[in-house]
User: Fold these one by one.
Assistant:
Number 1:
Amino acid sequence: MSSQQLKIDYQQAFETDSGKRVLQDILSYCHVLEPLSGNIDTNSIIIREARRDVALTILQKLNWNEKDFITTVEGAAK
């Protein structure tokens, strides 16, 4: 599978209303905008950063810009 085809597949998967809701859930679950705070152990930090990396990889494959990201995050907060 080519990287171009994979990019198209990501876009098709997340462009529907259902896909957008799933993406919002992924961004929330992966703590994309939540800073680390409090007394957090090293393993928790590693796990959280790994989740965050997955979410950021999805956004990169979707070729999203800042406006797309903010719109999605605002939708997830509602």
Number 2:
Amino acid sequence: MTITLDNMLNGHRAAFPDAGPASLCRAPGRVNLIGEHLDYNGLPVLPMAIDRAIYLAFSPREDNLIQLRNQDRAFAPADFRNTAAIEPSQRGAWENYCKAAIVGLNAHFHPERYAGMDLYVDGDIPSGAGLSSSSALVVATTLAYLSVLGKKMEQDITRLELATLLAEAEQYVGTRGGGMDQAVILLGRRNHACMIHFFPLRVTHVPVFSDHAFVVCNSLVKAHKTGAMLERYNEGPLTCRLLRAVIEQQAREDYDDDLRIDRLADLWYGPLGLTHEEAAYLIERATPDEAVGLAWIAQRLGAPEETLRQDGFKELVEPPGGFLLRTRARHQITEHQRVEAARDCLLADDPEGFGAAMYHSHWSCAEDYRVSCPELDAMVHTAQAAGAMGARMTGAGFGGCTVNLVAPEQLGRFQETMHRQYYQNNGFPLDDIDSAFLPVRSADWADYMVQER
């Protein structure tokens, strides 16, 4: 069913018959065009907000109760009290994303009264598909709570400040990501992608191609950040923290004993100001070609392994065979270069160059960073055979979607080939196939929509 203002307001009235007038806000999903697993290292990324969104109808309450209802019955009703200390629900519970927003704003504004709300949620972003439905829910809840608190966007807090705040607040749910999702959802612009730099956060809007389509294809392999999948996702940021420490040790030996590298981006944007070639040379000197265990890393850093585990790495699980530090680092260097090249291709209206960067990005994610899966790899191979100019996994990986750059005259062939060679050959049911192709257009940032009278 198409989501309309009337549907949302009627849904809210049905869920909360005693509530007062409701307001409505929306937060778009996003597709990361290129620049995967870079944001938590402070390196730039190139996503765009999309015309699929989370919609939220909300009304204030006189008490401090937060009531959540979702049009999708897969998400059970949830209630909790808004207090100075809101305990998380069990990992994977959808209400944790709403709690994250409220906890973050409470810590920032220190309100005199912890206000309650009635929230009714709907949306057309597929969950677990790597299109940031979870961060969109965080942002939508944030807009609702700001309104209930009587706070105004750009008066009481800027969009840039809010994106920075929410990137940290979302760690409440257990993920250790960066700030890309919150930034593009809050700062996206129609007909543009967002070139996002971090520390400090800043966004440049880059026009997207007017005569080529970005088509998202759902692998139908769910990539929810829960359980073992959450551990696999968090392995990337945690391994990069180990990598940062090893590279910092090498840089101190090469340049300055007092040198400090807070994140990998400091190699380029910090005091060293290295070129890509210089950064690659430093990383090659710092990291062994083979996989290493935590014991090797601890010895290299001159710290006992137990001390290292206590120093911010309690959640780190050593992968079978050890840590592939050099290949992880190689992805960071080459993906950083591809983001810059892709931005230039957009500015130069060069879809061929952009598409080539997308293919290279995918295989770097698959082979160097190891966050793809057989289904995503098969989809990229099929997309290339179907005439896509570019294709790559998008999002955290391990399932979810690919994003494909397709010339308009190739759209029919592309869809037919993907349908036959991927979906039919893998036996996916027809109702899933119908929802698997998502041509997406760039969209404007999250905002308020209407207030019921």
Number 3:
Amino acid sequence: MLSFISFNHILQYIDFNKVQQLFVYDPTDQLFFSTSFFLFFFFALLIFYRIFSKKKNLKIYTIIFFSLFFYYKNSGYFFLLLFASTFINFYFGSWIFKAKTHWLKKLLFISVIIIDLGLLVYFKYTNFFIQIINGVASGNIQLLNIILPIGISFYTFKAMSYVIEIFIETMEPTNSLRDFVLYMYFFPNILAGPIDRAVAFLPQIAGEMTASKDDIGRAVFLIMSGLFKKAVIADYIGLNFVDRVFQVPLRFTGVENLLASYAYTVQIYCNFSGYTDMALGIAALLGFKLMDNFNIPFLATSVADYWRRWHISLSTWLLDYLFKPLQMSFRRMRIYGSALAIFITFLLVGFWHGANWTYLVFGLFHSTYLAVSLLTQKFRKAFYDKVHLTGTKFLKAFQIFITFHLLLITAIIFRSDSLRTARDVFHQIFRYFHGVVFFQWVAGYTQVFVLIMLGYILHFIPKSVDNKIKNIITASPVYVQAFLLALMILVVVQVESAQLQPVIYFNF
């Protein structure tokens, strides 16, 4: 009786309306990896996953159910669009494979690509094209009330990779709709990648789907790293410095604009790579290995090298499915054809990020960098050989320095909400620098300065050190790993900014 009374007493303090709201879509309360509700719900998922450890079907359906709920909490009724994309690409993949003639196979392939890109273009670029038409033709077409579904660029590219691989006959379609649904819905990478290929993911479902001791240790390390980079470094310096400067650059001196540009460069790295770390760690706990997305990008010795290190899943997707076909089409033009293929590919990289002139100019800069680099490659090599710089540490350091600052220029354009804002940032840097303000800034923004430096230090930590820390965590008992993870969550809670910031790439 006492326990019954105590239980009723407890129920009186539970606000069931608030509990119900946790399971309803609220655009102001989304289910990000670093939220307490996600951590609680994911822990519950792991319990069920453990209970169903010997019942594979139940494990798969548990992940599918959680993934669907996760996407619904972040996008509302746009989960119906994800439904549509999943079924369309699954059945078209099967029809393409079974097509008896090449022309029918090609017709089906072109049709599904048009559907995929059509949905993407409609939601991301319709209003942008309307604005262009209004500007060019002095029209007065009303903009449409279109909301961009979160993650649409990522899951559309996942779906397209599936049908492309079937069309070029590098994989056969899966006969299991359930497995394809898991591939499309898989919550760790549905919102912001990595853009895993079906050819790499689907075979993992046929495996054991269990996490080894090494997997668990690696997962704990990645989740801790991701939480710290995303929720502590990126969110704090973004809210407390970068956003303020880029909102009104003319209110700040050139040195502050330059510092904000350096800060944004490390912010977007910590934001996106932190999310990716968490995605990889969460997937590892479920027995899946996702594609790594970063490899110390600011050590790149050229812009081409940078794209081999940054957002690797996107750059390799474009390399395989866009650049190589274009390069083959332009092969008669030799090196100029390759340069043109690069130019088109990376112009589209900018456009992929969103409907804004800043993204197009960002893509234009990268296209130009890469095309010019390719066309001058022999000349530069001959020059380095002549002055005996080839293979020297000085040349490598010089190339890293130049590449980083070429990227810094595009980062300013990328972060600006308009070309005018970007122009204002450059104007302040080159016309109103006032270097003496630096020491005043450090005194006034000490925490921001420390976190910026820490962000760059974490980025440049050698992989050997990274692996040693990972091995120490892996070798530790489970209770030590749990304690370290709990401690990191506590740090995040203590340092966390006033409001949780979404991953920057959610916008793309």
Number 4:
Amino acid sequence: MSGAGEGLAPDATVVVVGASLAGLRAAETLRSEGHRGPLVVVGAEEDFNYDRPPLSKQFLAGAWGLDRIRLRPPDKIDALGLDLHLGRRACAVDVDGRRVHLDDGATFDYDGLVIATGAHPRTLPGAEAATVARTLRTLGDATALAGVLDAAPAGGVRVVVVGGGFIGAEVASTCAGRGAQVTVVEALPTPLGRVLGEAVGAACAQLHRDHGVQVLTGTGVDAVTATPAGAAQVRLSSGATLDADVVVVGIGVVPSTAWLERSALHVDNGVVTDAALFAADQVVAAGDVCRWAEPRLDGEHVRLEHWTNAAEQGVHAARSLLAGRRHAEPFDTVPYFWSDQYDVKIQMLGHPRPDDDIVVVEGTGSLDEGRFVALYGRGGRLAAVLGFGRPRQLMGYRPLLVAGASFDQALAHRP
């Protein structure tokens, strides 16, 4: 057993709770950097070795099969020597006693613990009993929705997407591409307005409309009820109703921390950690569940739900655990996110806020063009960069974010 704040012994026991991307990257890093002790991995899903981003895009579109979304081939997984416990959930952790309890009664003692339980979809009140109301988070979710699209009549299935965030937007894009009649319902005045700002959010809404998707904003959903024919009726807060063959609920996710509520860890919109991802001595967190002290925001605690963040934090959490709390380095990176919608790749670098100064620097100088790069400035500094269909130009601004450039420097830069 390692002492408080010290690194792990090579033969120590590590338990990884959460078997998706962040947990897998943590396990791989532990092995690649010399850890040879027992490595227990607990995952709530029976199938853990797959990538989530394609679920709402290539997999749902039918362009990729299961083999294309595997994170690693089976022999690579076998080579890690993992003690896998899939289809099981952790239900409690005793931080002082260093023990994890599972829902089947099993317990595992650990010298190091990686928390990577991710997040789960928010539910829509009033839609719980409607069998046609679905979320899209897991391989099972995507397979079921793809089955609905596959069985669509010649006129196309009627899809109502509740929520105009990135997941909802990707599902709308993919379903429209498969010939579905798609309506997006967004409670906010502008989709993604609270993330990207009202003007950019309006450009996102227009992208949908340009591809034949109806976008209804400023209205919520009061109820989803099944019809005798097996379809659904969606009642909006405006009083209007929509008929649908399937309703996809994409109103965000909640960090999966219920199993930690009685632990000694600080849980507040995720597992709260220091800059090196430690939640306690010998306990680190990574991915969607982690809310860490971000050095680039002067130690403000943030939680990101991005693929790149989960991958990078899984690696860093393992390295922090190996080094020990006294010697671990801060997790310091420029966040990166992308979303494929219709024929446009939307990419973001940094930490945007809706009240930032936003200036279009690539394109015609207007968001109406549909392909542009916009800079986000805050407090005289460059805070983020957004690109619509301009990947090369966007990445040209990354060195400025790394260096902490001023907004004026960024405006004068031409990649």
